[in-house]
Amino acid sequence: MTIQIGKKIPDIELKVMGKNGPESVTTAELTAGKKVVLFAVPGAFTPGCSMTHLPGFVVNADKIKAKGVDSIICLSVNDAFVMDAWGKDQNAEEIIMLADGIAEFTKAVGLEKDLTGVQFGVRSQRYAMIIEDGTVQTLNIDEKGVDKSSADTILSLL
């Protein structure tokens, strides 16, 4: 079941790239006492994610943070090495590139997408959340395209 507005996000241990390799971080650490924009993509380096979704947040990071957002998180069902390389490729210095390598968070919030038919395995749906102190305030899910979860849309909702 998809997480609902007003609910706490599950506290899951995920990975980010640190100075010496992948480091563990929990969703509670990332969101407690903070206003966070978390957006998820089906896969790093994929066309829609690399040409539209992530770049929109990179370009608008300062505007989003000026609206009181403490951090912007990009989540994908990829490993920390891939997320780090993709972040560098996209100049995403202001974005936390969060690896949900085994789709644990994605499944816990009910936003997984089974793409085994095209040999991608379980991935995340494309969505964006505004989270305040660990509680979902806004959840926009895209069925197709990158409209509801785009940086422009999220910026208009802050």
UniProtKB/TrEMBL annotation:
InterPro entries: PRX5-like (IPR037944), Redoxin (IPR013740), Thioredoxin-like_sf (IPR036249), Thioredoxin_domain (IPR013766). The active site is at C49 (cysteine sulfenic acid (-soh) intermediate). It is an enzyme of class 1 (oxidoreductase). It comes from Oceanospirillum sediminis. This is Glutathione-dependent peroxiredoxin. GO terms for molecular function: thioredoxin peroxidase activity. The keyword DNA damage does not apply. Keywords: Antioxidant, Oxidoreductase, Peroxidase, Redox-active center.
